[in-house]
TrEMBL record, chain A:
Domain of life: Bacteria
Signal peptide range: none
Topological type in the membrane: Multi-pass membrane protein
CDD domains: TM_PBP2
Protein name stated in the entry: ABC transporter permease
Pfam family, one: BPD_transp_1
Gene3D superfamilies recorded: MetI-like
TrEMBL record, chains C, E:
Keywords: ATP-binding, Nucleotide-binding, Transport
PANTHER family tied to this protein: ALIPHATIC SULFONATES IMPORT ATP-BINDING PROTEIN SSUB (PTHR42788:SF13), TAURINE IMPORT ATP-BINDING PROTEIN-RELATED (PTHR42788)
Pfam families with a match to the protein in the record: ABC_tran (PF00005)
InterPro entries: AAA+_ATPase, ABC_transporter-like_ATP-bd, ABC_transporter-like_CS, ABC_transporter_ATP-bind, P-loop_NTPase
Protein name, as recorded: ABC transporter ATP-binding protein
A GO molecular function held by the record: ATP binding
Residue span, ABC transporter domain: 6-237
Protein family: Belongs to the ABC transporter superfamily.
Taxonomic superkingdom: Bacteria
SUPFAM superfamilies: P-loop containing nucleoside triphosphate hydrolases
From TrEMBL, chain D:
UniProt protein name: ABC transporter permease
Keyword line: Cell membrane, Membrane, Transmembrane, Transmembrane helix, Transport
InterPro entries registered for this protein in UniProt: MetI-like (IPR000515), MetI-like_sf (IPR035906)
Protein family according to the UniProt entry: Belongs to the binding-protein-dependent transport system permease family.
Gene3D superfamilies per the UniProt record, alphabetical: MetI-like
Membrane topology label: Multi-pass membrane protein
Keyword Transport: yes
Domain of life: Bacteria
Residues covered by the ABC transmembrane type-1 domain: 112-304
Main location class: membrane
Species the sequence originates in: Marivivens donghaensis
PROSITE patterns associated with the record: ABC_TM1 (PS50928)
Pfam families given in the database record: BPD_transp_1
Length: 281, 307, 257, 315, 257
């Protein structure tokens, strides 16, 4: 019980510290911008640890963060091999194929208005097909290895990417298009010099959404059949073995990799769409 | 009436007919019990539910129960309605497999989620590596169905006599196209579907009393089911909320399950238990359990319930 | 031969609320070297007329010729440069590359591009800003860059649709002077839309006053001001007289509403 | 009509492609069935066929492919098989089935109507929780710098966690504190739907420009007046856009929650379809789920159109 | 007692690119009933000064009093109405409810609200448009609604930041006349920012010419025009003389750059 009260005290104290950091004299400094979320994250972990220990929560229900950290450190090779299988092979290949083909299809769809009006509503409908239903089908079609995971990721990222890219390609002002018209520019010239650059903020929006989807898709697909390797395999097997610490270690890997993947795309976005008001400040 | 919650290992099907019959026929009610049956499903670990207090008693396989016990979850077998193992490996005959010695180089489908222990024990007893390669086997984590076999993504898959094997046959495959290895026959049988509770709960006489009545009524249900397989199957069907089970398949399943429960009066047979433990310990470099488990079962309940 | 000649021009937009008669019976002749301003209340069809000339909009009646061709042919022959109300620079291109844009599209060689960009940057006094991005420049500088872009390829006709609408009066004065200088130096034919009476009077050889619903020309005023125009010509009696006439024309148009 | 034309064309093209694709996709099963029925096929054993290419099998056995569009346990059931399954498991089951509403007075647990209802309940409950929580969180984030800075980054990280992996554990943990029934599914739905709502709502609550905010300052308006009279109405278009994403996510959440809890619902249907190799059942449940999603999005769209129109914000 | 009194006012913004000296040593006294225009090139601090008066920005030096109070106290006492450059009506409220907004916030009773809305709608000639949404009105009508909103509660001071910047010249003329009428009828003290020299001269009793970098007052011109001003006063010699002085002041400010 004392541990739980301690957790409460720490929570309040950390919140007060964060409130001071955000609103006090340091509020505009870079340090505060980084420290505040970190302090918040650390507080969550400490409170988690104290509550789990204080209330004697069974390790097979929720292990404390310290145990998870230990498991993480001891199983680095396994975690790494799983990540290579799931992220390196399944997610990344699916991400590239899915986003790449959506990009190309978007350009074609955008060119022919008939396709746009026909394909987008159907696409929206297909995008609503729940992935957990599609995954077993794709595992049946593409086998147990990473290819089926890749296929699931392709299906998951395709429509968000398509919709965003199509929206982006249309996101030019009438004036920008008229300008091209006054130069009597052809379709490809307009595409390359106007529409593609103008579409980039949308394209990156799609790419960012797709990062988290790719990761989740690859992991989920492994629940429906896999080799004896991979993050989804490990999570599902470890739950069965009541090795919850290992489950959480994999979740940590997923969160780290997901955030890193997202961050990487955001970084590239910053370079490519440096001109967009949202990137300028 | 006392409340009892039972967590099943898998979805509602004739594998658990005894409990549904006891519920349906009022055996639990007669024992002054108010029983709730929670069906299981993929990725629901019954042990976790038990540990979290979501259930009082669960159905599990002994290997995974022992492994969980070694992991620090103090669960105890209080009854063992299944005498015989229904687990088997089913292979295409045309894959050229005639015995375990031919497994090398083939792809085998295995259930994980705590169901892999019997397979791993068997393989390590045979000295076959499960890491793929020339003289090992490639293991797939098979999903919930027999497609990997039918579509030849694997040469062998795990099946239960009462369920997946039937499905293979229902899909039009004849028995002479197949080679089957029953764990029971190759000497690595482990105890399946037993009833487990948390150890510390057994110190509570009221709980013990509840379990005594529960086990007694459940065994009454099992015996009724063995005697009336078709009606039992229909009862199971009535309790299946997904509406997915078919009459035909459940009747088949009940028939096969009855063969597995046949030899048991509900009390754990120590010899069977010992054989399971030996099998699990025998796993060479990578045994499923590392120490001889202690206190993993008790006759306290069944002694009381069955006299 | 006149550079631009409109005879009985009509344009009706079909909209959800029914047809909008944007131009009605517009007759206008613009000679080579003319500086023609279009002035009139919002919605009177100034932009629409300029867009018809540019081949961006297609009249529903009457004839319109540009350099003796149809507007579409003229557009394809790249007969004019068009300056929009807002600068409309592409934000992902530097000022230099924005100005080079029409040149790239028209297939000029790299060296020719560089040379022309340099020349027009000089003309609009933006030398040194070539490598900057549009948002790093003030509104007036952006507007000058957009004029430079229209000047980069040698079209005889320059169409400007409220190019200085968004700028403050002082900057506007300065750009007015520069446009006049440019017109004097190059002898281009200029069509210029504005809302400002002084601006119209100050710049033009011919002021076209328009009126809305339906959009039509209500007055065409030939300026009597000399070609050489210092800024303080705006305080001269002649200037004020012309401004008066324009204002009266405009007010008459507004009365109808 | 000219709105439907392209859509129908695309659908027809997809259906045509689907039928064509079903032939090579199902060729193994088709030939095996044909072989069992006594038709000569080449190669004449399943093992050799499993090693041959799909197209080569198609061309070697052109006359034995009649069953391609009616195989049991098809890898790709043909469109009419799926439609028949949908019809059988909705109208036919309810009207003619022993447990159907006509004969029993309640929806049959073998019908997708019943299972849609189960899923819908959890979806709506989860959506209400998720959207409500998302809106509250957004208000907190907009009004508290501390929350903005500490919570927002973690809200993004939370979306990189594979919820499907957590779903069974969430359910078990909720069981353990005595929460069962629809609630665990709703919690997963809420987890998936809160994020789009937070993101959209934060954007919406921050959409008033400086001038609109300054106007209130010149009136010396209080914070709550600023919320009710400015921020909240200004956020409406954003709110509805994110609610549409949220409800679709919520449906996915409910289905995910139904996988491990085999107690009815479209998710349970999909799994049992997979469990027994009944691919038509999976496809039928999939399509019904997508139709449900489309319907719910349409309902929110309708409310949006009405609300925005009443607020004078519809264009 | 003066209504607004600034002594040695300074304001420096801290930005990423270093400090911006938006107002430097501003001294200005505005008496009750004055109509004061602020004119100057973009960025000279016109808006900033008005915002200081309104208590929306806080000077970093000097003193500023409004009705003898600090600007913040004056803001809390609701001493002024503020009209922004764009109309800034809330699009989800009808014109009537937009005008009622300040009244709701200040806690007027329903009946009082209705009565006042009616009165100011009448004043700006928008009777009958109460139930319309902003986008159903023209730009000029929107701007009048926004003035009505500022008039709905009885503040002695009216601060207007380029209220007619977005309108065309004819509409602007009409609104100018109306503002003058309003000022004549109510005797309010008005602070008015504009970019247009004729507008400033036409409206004001006092014209404040400002210059940027750092923002400061370079000239304060007391108008000699009578209070009663028909539109064609703008062609009078006196008007042109004042306009000249303003233009010179402005050009001097621009020269520094
Ligand atoms: N693409 C279009 N479709 C329908 N109506 C249009 C279109 N373009 C312009 N109009 C209508 O035609 C009329 C003339 O418009 P135009 O833009 O030429 O006016 P303008 O004189 O340039 O006005 P402003 O000073 O506001 O720019 C207006 O009533 C306008 O609403
Ligand atoms: N919030 C702010 N933060 C930093 N700098 C500011 C801020 N507001 C104004 N400035 C700067 O202060 C100076 C004066 O700005 P202000 O808006 O008062 O000019 P203005 O005279 O109203 O110009 P305009 O005619 O363009 O409206 C400008 O250089 C501007 O960039
Ligand atoms: C995820 C998961 N996969 C496989 C099994 C294996 N299993 C054990 S009993 C049983 C029923 C047999 O008909 C099955 C399939 C499981 N429990 N959970
Ligand atoms: Mg126009
Ligand atoms: Mg300003």
């Amino acid at each position: 019980m004392t541990l739980v009260i301690l957790a409460l005290v720490i929570w309040v104290a950390a919140w007060a510290l964060n409130a001071w950091l955000s609103n006090g004299p340091l509020s505009n400094s870079r340090i505060a911008g980084i420290a505040v979320p970190l302090i918040f994250g650390a507080t969550v972990l400490i409170v988690w640890e104290l509550v789990v220990r204080g209330m004697n929560v069974a390790a097979v229900i929720l292990p404390p963060p310290s145990v998870i950290a230990g498991t993480f450190a001891q199983n680095l090779p396994t975690l790494w091999a799983d990540a290579v299988q799931t992220i390196g092979k399944g997610a990344v290949s699916g991400y590239i194929i899915g986003c790449g083909s959506a990009f190309i299809v978007a350009i074609i769809v955008d060119r022919y208005d008939f396709l746009r009006r026909g394909l987008l509503p159907v696409g929206n409908f297909m995008a609503a097909l729940p992935i957990v239903g599609i995954a077993p089908i794709l595992v049946m079609w593409f086998g147990f290895d990473w290819q089926s995971k890749s296929a699931v990721v392709v299906v998951m990222v395709f429509f968000p990417m398509l919709v965003n890219t199509v929206a982006g390609l249309r996101d030019t002002s009438a004036m920008q298009r008229d300008l091209m018209h006054t130069y009597a520019a052809g379709y490809f010239q307009t595409l390359i010099k106007l529409r593609l650059p103008a579409a980039m903020p949308f394209v990156f929006n799609g790419l960012k959404i797709a990062t988290t989807l790719a990761l989740i898709g690859a992991i989920v697909a492994e629940f429906f059949g896999s080799p004896v390797l991979g993050m989804g395999f490990r999570i599902s097997t470890s739950v069965g073995q009541l090795a919850l610490d290992m489950v959480w270690a994999e979740i940590v890997v997923a969160a780290l990799a997901g955030s890193a993947f997202y961050g990487l795309i955001a970084l590239i976005e910053r370079g490519v769409t440096f001109w967009h008001p949202s990137q300028r400040k | 009436a006392d409340d009892v919650t039972l967590q099943l290992k898998w979805v509602t099907q004739a594998q658990f007919a005894g409990y549904y019959v006891a519920l349906d026929q009022g055996f639990y009610e007669e024992a002054d019990l108010n029983v709730t049956i929670l069906p299981g499903g993929p990725d629901i670990a019954p042990g976790q539910v038990l540990a979290g207090g979501g259930a009082d008693v669960m159905v599990d396989w002994l290997p995974s129960a022992l492994a969980a016990r070694e992991k620090g979850l103090p669960i105890v077998n209080i009854a063992q309605p299944f005498k015989t193992s229904g687990l088997m490996l089913t292979c295409w005959k045309d894959s050229g497999i005639t015995g375990p010695e031919d497994f090398a180089g083939h792809t085998l489908g295995v259930w994980f989620f705590g169901n892999e222990y019997p397979f791993l024990s068997w393989m390590s007893q045979e000295g076959i590596s499960t890491d793929g390669g020339e003289d090992g086997v490639t293991v797939l984590k098979q999903g919930f169905n027999v497609d990997p076999l039918l579509q030849r993504q694997a040469d062998c898959i795990s099946t239960m006599t009462y369920n997946e094997f039937g499905q293979v046959l229902e899909a039009g495959v004849t028995e002479d196209e197949l080679v089957t290895f029953k764990y029971e026959d190759v000497g690595v049988a482990t105890l399946e579907d037993g009833l487990y509770v948390l150890e510390d709960q057994l110190e509570d006489p009221a709980f013990v009393d509840k379990m005594v009545r529960f086990v007694a009524a459940s065994m009454q249900g099992w015996k009724w089911a063995e005697e009336n397989p078709e009606e039992a199957a229909m009862i199971v069907l009535d309790y299946d909320e997904t509406g997915a089970q078919t009459e035909e398949h459940q009747i088949y399943m009940m028939g096969e399950v009855a063969k597995l429960t046949a030899g048991s009066n509900g009390a754990l047979d120590e010899a069977d238990y010992q054989r399971t433990v030996d099998t699990l310990l025998a796993g060479g470099s990578d045994p499923v359990i590392t120490m001889v488990p202690e206190g993993a079962w008790t006759h306290a309940i069944t002694d009381e319930a069955l006299n | 031969m006149s550079v631009i000649e409109a005879k009985g021009l009509n344009l009706t937009f079909q909209t959800n609320d029914g047809p909008v008669h944007a131009l009605k019976d517009v007759n206008l002749t613009i000679e080579k070297g003319d500086f023609v301003s279009f002035i009139g209340p919002s919605g009177c069809g100034k932009t629409t007329f300029l867009r018809c000339v540019a081949g961006l909009e297609h009249p529903t009646g009457g004839t319109l010729s540009v350099n003796g061709m149809t507007p579409d042919e003229a557009r394809k022959a790249r007969a004019y440069g068009y300056v929009f109300q807002a600068a409309g620079l592409y934000p992902w291109r530097t000022i230099g590359r924005n100005i080079a844009l029409p040149l790239e599209i028209m297939g000029y060689s790299k060296s020719e591009q560089a040379e022309r960009v340099k020349r027009v940057l000089d003309l609009v006094e933006l030398t040194g800003f070539e490598k900057k991005f549009p948002w790093q420049l003030s509104g007036g500088m952006q507007q000058r860059a957009s004029i430079a872009r229209a000047l980069a390829f040698d079209a005889d006709i320059l169409l400007m649709d409220e190019p200085f609408g968004a700028l403050d009066e002082i900057v506007r004065d300065r750009l007015n002077e520069e446009v006049l200088k440019l017109w004097n130096n190059t002898g281009k034919t200029i069509g210029f839309v504005t809302h400002s009476i002084p601006e119209a009077v100050y710049l033009s050889t011919k002021i076209v006053v328009m009126s809305p619903r339906p959009g039509r020309i209500t007055d065409v005023i030939e300026s009597t001001l000399p070609r050489e125009r210092p800024l303080d010509i705006r305080d001269s009696a002649e200037f004020i007289a012309i401004a008066h006439r324009v204002r009266d024309g405009l007010r008459a148009g507004h009365m109808d509403e | 009509m000219n709105k439907l034309g392209p859509v129908i064309t695309v659908i027809l093209a997809i259906v045509a492609f689907w039928y064509v694709a079903a032939v090579p996709m199902n060729v193994q099963e088709t030939l095996t069935a044909a072989e069992r029925a006594g038709v000569a096929v080449t190669p004449d054993n399943a093992r050799a066929r499993s090693e041959a290419g799909r197209w080569s099998l198609v061309f070697q056995n052109l006359d034995a492919l009649g069953g391609s569009w009616s195989v049991d346990r098809a890898r790709l059931p043909s469109p009419h098989q799926v439609l028949t399954e949908i019809y059988n498991s909705t109208w036919d089951e309810e009207v003619n089935g022993r447990r159907g509403i006509v004969n029993s007075g309640s929806f049959s647990n073998r019908s997708l109507v019943y299972h849609s209802g189960v899923t819908l309940g959890a979806t709506v409950l989860g959506f209400l929780i998720g959207a409500g929580f998302g809106i509250l969180l957004a208000v907190g984030i907009v009004y508290s710098r501390t929350m903005d800075r500490s919570v927002m980054p973690w809200a993004i990280v939370s979306q990189t966690i594979p919820i499907v992996a957590l779903a069974p554990m969430i359910i078990v943990v909720l069981y353990s504190i005595g929460i069962g029934g629809m609630m665990p599914k709703a919690v997963i739905s809420a987890y998936l739907s809160f994020f789009p709502v937070v993101v959209g709502m934060v954007k919406g609550l921050r959409s008033p420009d400086h001038m609109q905010l300054d106007l209130l300052r010149t009136y010396n308006a209080s914070k709550s007046q600023g919320f009710w009279k400015l921020r909240l109405p200004a956020s409406m278009p954003y709110l509805f856009t994110s609610l549409k994403i949220g409800i679709a996510a919520s449906l996915v959440g409910a289905i995910v929650g139904e996988l491990p809890v085999q107690r009815g619902g479209l998710g349970a249907r999909m799994l049992s379809g997979s469990y027994y190799g009944q691919t038509e059942q999976i496809w039928a449940a999939l399509f019904v789920a997508a139709i449900l999603a489309a319907l719910m999005v349409a309902i929110i769209g309708w409310i949006e159109a009405r609300t925005l129109k009443r607020m004078g914000m519809a264009v």
